[in-house]
From TrEMBL:
The keyword Coiled coil applies. This is Conjugal transfer protein TraD. It comes from Escherichia coli. Keywords: Coiled coil. InterPro entries: Conjugal_tfr_TraD_a-type. Residues 17-44 form a coiled coil. It holds the Pfam family TraD.
């Protein structure tokens, strides 16, 4: 029986122990890969949200994304900091109602 185990051991590739530096470098590479993947996924989520926002703006203006009057929309948005708090509440309520009325919208 010892012959069989000797044969099995000789067939297996010898395990070379990694030095601490090699283990650290390997762990660092895995960490870098995971961080890159995480950043990539976060960017994809952000991009998706921007696309959805653009589509919702176009829907609110009852036009297509390519015909949105960007200057007008941006001009209106620049006025938001100067609005009275009551006006902000009213506009937000209207916006919530509009979003709730959109068919097929995911929250």
């Amino acid at each position: 029986m010892s012959n069989i185990s000797d044969k099995e051991q000789s067939r297996k590739k010898p395990r070379i122990k990694k030095t601490l530096e090699q283990q650290l470098a390997s762990a660092q590479m895995r960490l870098n890969r995971l961080q890159h993947k995480s950043k990539k996924e976060a960017k994809q989520i952000e991009t998706r949200q921007k696309i959805i926002l653009g589509a919702e703006v176009a829907k609110a203006l009852d036009c297509d994304v390519f015909t949105v009057d960007k200057e007008l929309v941006l001009g209106i948005l620049l006025e938001i900091p100067h609005l009275h708090p009551d006006d902000k509440k009213r506009f937000k309520k209207n916006g919530l109602l509009f979003l709730a009325s959109m068919k097929g919208r995911k929250t």
